[in-house]
Specification:
By secondary structure, the chain is an alpha+beta fold. The chain contains 18 helices and 17 strands. A 5-stranded mixed β-sheet has the order 5-4-3-6-7. Helix 16 crosses helix 17. The longest helix is centred in the C-terminal third of the chain and has 16 residues. The chain is elongated, with a radius of gyration of 43 Å.
Length: 522
């Protein structure tokens, strides 16, 4: 074992492994007690590296804690007497306990402790200490040795849908395609024990932990969680990550013997139906739409199967390779050996556990390829016109609120509207001013909307002055919008002023044009 002490999560899962057999249902109280007693007699390797037995009260305490709070209830609690000197249990107490057990091997530990407390009062006799000292004594081992009887195999069936799920892998299956290519694959399926409905099935090239997690997630996302899962002793189902995920979700995995296909006859028969007849009914038909009452949020379902990996980040760049992807750890964690929470199928991004706070942190992909660059969201178009802070002051001073133009309507939109209404290209130059003036003049003269969106409230005769344009150029600019409206220029009350070159238009110039007859009406 390494010098690093195991985490609280690892200790909790180790404790779950010790009581896993006692969680199977349906179990009578006597059968559960027999299993726990047999478990307490077997030396196991503790997370600290020490090999010794687990006391029976500890097993019962862990069983009760798991039923109340799940895997979190199995995490260790700091001792209340930490830092204080502990008194060792005298040898006379152990000798008296062995004498009482020799006279009555069936004496329970609870009754034994009460007799010892009454005999050696006021000495305290801790239950766990007495159990540990007795378990290390050879006389106690000989007294508590039991004979394990083989159970008679009987048929079993779940009482209700989603009570028991059976999971198994079939393969390798070899199929030769029409092109002569040989394809080898495996089929993973999950079967509901009560209804024989196939809840999920996937085809994979190799059977690994990622495939086992994928098939269970697919069934749980559709039908929620089962109470128990029955699978063989394959390495993918017997792995620590898969069993820890089931324990965290509260789905008990039924322990089965290896190389025992008759015990899984239902799912073995399913593969025979795959081969000969196919499925007789869809899962919806077999289950009648009934889901499991044990609903689970998707986030918890995905986080439950994260696998812990210890990797060292690059001291300069902070890069770490997980699978086939390179990630970057936070800058303060560069060069450290860290714990990463990795999803076996790779359906969600891995996390890194902060070494001090223990909080999981997100990782950023390293920009190795162009597709690794972060996809920036498209920038929202800037608001081109909106009331500014001075607008309120101006409206207050004027005593009225000025109407604002429609947001996003500017020169580019104006050019596009003029081009669509005039039926020709409108240059984005100073010539646009004449096009716009011609559009407004035609709208007022004809009573139609300007630019196709601004309503003319009052129409009438229009006097148009084109200072720098000839009469022919003005007529071209008027004909396009008039043709788009289906109007004739000659029928409109529209008058143009034509002045000699160099003469500025004014009231006097207009009067002179009237006297000289240079006012031309279209």
């Amino acid at each position: 074992m390494s010098g690093k002490s195991p985490s609280a999560r690892a200790i909790a899962f180790w404790r779950y492994q010790q009581i896993e057999d006692a969680l199977a249902e349906p179990l009578s109280r006597r059968e559960r007690a027999r299993r726990l007693a047999a478990k307490s007699c077997t030396p196991v390797c503790w997370p600290s590296g020490e090999t010794r037995r687990v006391s029976l009260p500890s097993l019962y305490r862990w069983l009760s804690a798991y039923r109340r709070r799940g895997l979190e209830g199995l995490q260790p609690v700091p001792r209340r007497d930490r830092g204080r000197q502990r008194q060792r249990l005298p040898e006379a107490v152990i000798a008296e306990a062995l004498r009482l057990l020799t006279e009555d091997p069936g004496l329970s530990l609870t009754l034994l402790i009460e007799v010892l407390r009454a005999t050696f009062a006021p000495l305290a006799v801790p239950r766990s200490t007495l159990q540990r000292r007795l378990a290390a004594h050879p006389i106690y081992q000989r007294l508590r040795r039991v004979v394990v009887h083989r159970r008679r195999r009987t048929r079993f069936v779940a009482r209700a849908p989603h009570e028991i799920w059976q999971c198994d892998a079939k393969g390798p299956v070899r199929v030769t395609l029409g092109s002569g290519e040989l394809v080898i694959f495996h089929v993973l399926s999950i079967l509901d024990d009560a209804t024989r409905a196939v809840l999920a099935a996937i085809v994979v090239l190799s059977v690994d932990l990622a495939a086992a997690v994928r098939i269970f997630r697919a069934a749980a996302m559709r039908w929620d969680l089962p109470r128990r899962l029955y699978a063989d002793r394959a390495s993918i189902f017997d792995s620590v990550a898969f069993r820890m995920g089931l324990a965290g979700l509260g789905a008990h995995r039924i322990r089965s013997k290896p190389r025992n296909p008759p015990a899984r006859g239902k799912i073995e028969a399913l593969y025979q139906r795959y081969r000969h007849r196919g499925l007789e009914a869809t899962p919806e038909q077999a289950l009648g739409g009934r889901r499991s009452p044990r609903a689970v949020p998707p986030t918890r379902l995905f986080d439950a199967f994260r696998e812990e990996k210890r990797l060292k980040a690059h001291p300069v760049t902070g890069e770490v390779v997980i699978g086939s992807t390179t990630y970057l750890v936070p800058e303060e964690l560069r060069g450290q050996t860290l714990t990463f929470l990795v999803d076996p199928p790779g359906e969600i991004e891995p996390l890194v556990v902060h070494p001090h706070s223990g909080e999981p942190l997100t990782l950023r992909k390293a920009a190795i390829r162009p597709e690794d660059l972060p996809q920036s969201a498209p920038a929202a178009p800037a608001e081109r016109w909106a009331p500014g802070p001075l607008q309120v002051l101006y409206d207050t001073w004027r005593g009225r609120v000025r109407p604002l133009a429609e947001p996003g309507f500017g020169l580019p939109e104006l050019y596009a509207l003029l081009a669509s209404l005039s039926g020709r290209h409108v240059p984005d130059t100073d010539a646009c001013k004449t096009f716009l003036a011609a559009e407004l003049a035609l709208a007022v003269a004809s009573g139609t909307s300007a630019l196709g969106r601004f309503t003319v409230r009052a129409s009438g005769a229009v006097l148009f002055y084109g200072a720098e344009d000839s009469l022919a150029a003005l007529r071209v600019r008027f004909e396009g919008p008039a043709r788009a409206r289906g109007l004739s220029l000659d029928a409109l009350p529209l008058t143009a002023i034509v002045l000699p070159a160099g003469l500025v238009a004014s009231r006097f110039a207009i009067r002179r044009a009237k006297r000289e007859g240079t006012l031309i009406q279209y």
